Amino acid sequence: MAGPSGGGWGHGPPPVNKRGRQAPEWLDPANVHGELRYLILAPQKGFAIPKNAFLIEKSLSPFVGPIEPCVPMDQGARYLMKTRSREQFDKLLAIKKLIDGTPVEITSDRARNTVQCVMVTPYLDGLTDEEILAQIEGTKIVEVKRFMRKVDGAVKPTNAYLLRVDSVTVPEEVRVGCISVRTRPYYPRPMICFKCLIVGHTTARCNSAPACPNCSMPEHGSCNNPPRCKNCKGDHATLNRSCPVYLAEQNIIRIKVDNCISYPEARKIYSQVQESAVQKRLANAQQQPQQPQPLQQQPQQNDTAPAERDATIEKLKTMLNSAFAKIQELIEERDFFKSQVQSRRKDKHTENADSNHTDSNSDSNAGANSNHDTNMETNAEQNIDTNNTNANNNTNTDANVATQKDSKTSTPIGPKRKASPSSSSYSTVDTTSEEKIPHGNNSTPSKTKSHKRGKRRSNKRKTGFRY
User: Fold this and answer.
1) Would you call 104 helix, strand, or coil by DSSP?
2) How is residue 416 annotated by DSSP?
3) 443 pLDDT above the threshold of 90
4) What per-residue confidence (pLDDT) applies to 361?
5) Which of 1, 210, 347, 395 keeps 20 to 30 A from 411, CA to CA?
6) How far is CA 141 from CA 40, 73, 132, 145, 165, in A?
7) Which of the two residues, 154 and 450, has the higher pLDDT score?
8) Residues contacting 36, CB < 8 A, separation 6+
9) Is the pTM above the cut of 0.70?
């Protein structure tokens, strides 16, 4: 589809494109310093342009103003004109005859005033080239062509489009509907004639005899001769893409596209660059001549060399065998020590398991004994508290009996006096308070405190607390 995708050309960078604008549009409202455009002055059919340069200048200057120098083409049959003014360009297109009455036609040079670029987008499916061009009429695109591809013998359309833009520079992107698509320059492949196998023209314009693509001789069917290129005379087939002539054609096409110039002009620039590169290499070679290095004499081989080589080989074999033997011994020692370590670890694990089982049994027995001692102490304390309570009860009973006897003996003779409310209430409160005092073993305050104290002591003994 396109030529080389990148990389340098020749032996230096391509010349700068001097056909662009000399000033931005906002500084050039009259559009006098715009892009350099070319026109072709040719006579109409059946007429010829006079061989008088002054007549041509006098025919053009009064209408368009001063013009730049023209270039004769086809031995004066046509003239190539150029201008940067858009107004002057339009006026030249309107001229139809010279001052001597010769009918002429001035047209825009399409090859020099337009560039081609490639656009790839999948968002134009189902549209023809004419429909796409009609939709983008507002831009500088003047031609749209979709690339086709043969798949399994059938020609199918692709998503790549070849655009021709009315400009001398390739646009970075093109507006297509609601999207913007990036573009790249289009580098066509060099023309090769598959009839005579010469680079530079096609089969449709070839008048030469057919040639063999392998040996470059006249066509003779199947060829078993050694390959030979017809273009560079090298030892390869003519259609080989690495041929120097084919690569040179690629570089010329790149110069033509990048600078928007004609093919002869691009070939001339390429030849100048090649000549300068060759001259530079020759100058460097003359400044730094290479001195031939003296040949080194080869030492003569002695007859004892094979014997020494064999002895060295045997010595190396012996050293290798001894090294392998030592390595095997080290491996066996390692395996032995590894088995010993594993057995020791297993025995130690068994001993730890037995000791843990014995410790757990002893701890359980100790816990049971401590619980029994705790219960014995608690029962003893409860008995002591019970005895003390009984003794207190007996003492209180004896005191009550003695009080009653004294009251009987001290009762006066005569009429009984009524007790005062204060004394009766006092005696009543005392009696009821004495009767309401509980004497049960479980409700005794001293016993309850001693029981809680004993329980705390037993818990501390269980947990191993010492005080």
Assistant:
1) strand
2) P
3) no
4) 54
5) 395
6) 22, 29, 10, 11, 4
7) 154
8) 18, 19, 82, 83, 84, 168
9) no
